[in-house]
Please model this.
Amino acid sequence: MTVAERIIHTMKKAIALFLIPGLLLLGAGCDGAPRRELSDGLPYRAEWMPDDLAQVGLGGLTVDKAEEGRFTPESPTTPRLAYLLGDRDPAENSDCHTVYLAVETAQTVWFADLGDSYAAQIWPCDVDGDGTDEVVVQQTVGMTDGTGQFRSRVFKATEEDMHALFDSGPPDADDGFFDIFTATPKDGFLLEMRSSVTEYAVTLDLSAGEEYVGVYFDEAGKVIGNAALRCDSYWEFLPRDVDGDGVFELVCRQHVFLLDHADCLGDVTSVLKFDTRTRAFRILRTQFTEAP
Model:
C-alpha cells in the first residue's frame, strides 16, 4: 500500500467509524430507555467497513459477537464474516439492549436492526444449498411466566440486498411452524398428540396430573372436555447438517403445555429444511420428548 493509499484508507476508517451506521434516538428500548435505530432504513448498506470492526466496534456500538463462515464463491479467499453489534449503555443495569446484525459480502456490508435482546447468537452457514453462507440468528427477546421468549431468523445477504429467508416473528406470532401439534384427550387419562404436518403421533399418560381432573377428565378418567395444546417459540434454533448432504438444516426445539408453563408436557423437536422449489422452509420431521 502506497503512502497515499494509506492516508486514504485511514481517512475512510475515521469517517466510517463516525458515520456508519447513522444512528438516531427513536422510540423506546428495554425498560423504556431511548433506543437508536439505523437512520437510512433497514437493512442499511455500507460500501466500506473498518478492517478491525471486531476490535473497535462501529458508530459507538460494541461488538457482542463475531463469527466467520466458510469461503464464499464470489470471494474464495475471504471468509464470510457476520457480527452482532450491541448498543449498550454502561450506566444501565440491564441485560437487555438493542442488537444489530452486520454481514459482509465481497463488495459491501449489510446491517439489519434485530431489535431488543437479552441474548443473541449467530451462525454463518449454507442453508439453501447455493454454496454461500446465510446467517442464522437466535435471540432471547423476553420472559413470560419465568420462561424465555425467543425470535428465530435466517438472513441471506447478496450484493443486491439482505433479506430474511425465515422469520418466526414475535414469540406470540403464528407462522405455521410453532403450532403444528394437536391434542386429543382419550378415556383413561390419556392425551394423543399428533403432528398436523408429519405422520408423527404419541400418546401421553396424564393420570398423575391432578390439575387435569375437572378440566379434561372426570374422577374416573372419562373425557369431559377438549384440549388445546400450546406451543412456545423455539428456545433452540441450531443449524445442523442432519442428512449429511453438506447443506444445513435447522433443528428447532420448543416447550409444549396445556394449561400454563408450569405444566410443561415436554419438548417438540422439529427439523426444518429449505425447499429450493418453493423457496421456503418445510418441516422434515418432528419428535416429542416427554418432560421428566
Remarks:
- The longest strand covers residues 75-87.
- DSSP finds two helices and 19 strands in the chain.
